Amino acid sequence: MTLRIAALQMCSGTEPGPNLDALEALVAEAVAGGARYVLSPEVTVVFAENREGLADVAGPWEGNPAIARVSAMAARHKVHLHLGSLAVALPDGRFANRSVLFSPEGEILATYDKVHLFDATLPGLKNYRESETYRGGDRAVLAEGPGVKLGLTICYDVRFPRLHRSLAEAGAQLIAVPAAFTVPTGEAHWHVLLRARAIETGCFVIAAAQAGTHPNGRRTYGHSMIIDPWGRVVAEADGETVGPVFADIDLAAIDEARGKVPALENARDFILPTAPEAERQAS
């Protein structure tokens, strides 16, 4: 089976209205280009400057106007539309970084809350605690796309192979990676991480990215891309241009790649002894 898919590259700002207008135009362009599944980037609806800015514009899940509008887009264009992520206000004052998959009828087929949050102490910089703003999810999600089983991830998740392997073992054929990578980390790691996730799972990977200089002053790496199960980049955007990236994916390539390198089938459980136990075994 061959399926045309599209990754939307965007440069989202701090207000939902213009971002949703931009999304609508890009979805129309992708559907006109024949796409049956369309993925937008992380923080499509609002790319806020800080937590306070997010609090001003991010609503709760129930009655969320952005969700209603994207649902209407999916139904209007009769496409599986995957909103890469939006911030959803939670009762504890934090937010969920939530991905939402819509059917061509506008129904919500699946949601996924980003599991892995970036909490780090960066040399020469202040501590960065994503968990102070967002609450991490606690479940992996496999969904039904248009004739394809879809694994849901978001941005920083790409650094955690176990999530992707679990999705592949559960039946994923296409893994979605909506993202907003910074330029330095994108230059260093974006391509190699995405290709590695495709190779080790034998899945297609579609990565829709934020790109360019945003109204909040942030710069993102772009390079939205689609990768086949052998790790080949079959479609890629540049680091600035807004627009869709298309690929026709043949699901037969999944069995072919996994047949050549049956890593999922050959995987085994193992133990890692503690140091004292290892010493006892050696003696």
UniProtKB/TrEMBL annotation:
SUPFAM superfamilies: Carbon-nitrogen hydrolase. Gene3D superfamilies: Carbon-nitrogen hydrolase. It comes from the Bacteria. GO terms for molecular function: hydrolase activity, acting on carbon-nitrogen (but not peptide) bonds, in linear amides. PROSITE patterns: CN_HYDROLASE, UPF0012. Keywords: Hydrolase. It holds the Pfam family CN_hydrolase. Residues 3-251 form the CN hydrolase domain. Belongs to the carbon-nitrogen hydrolase superfamily. NIT1/NIT2 family. This is Predicted amidohydrolase.
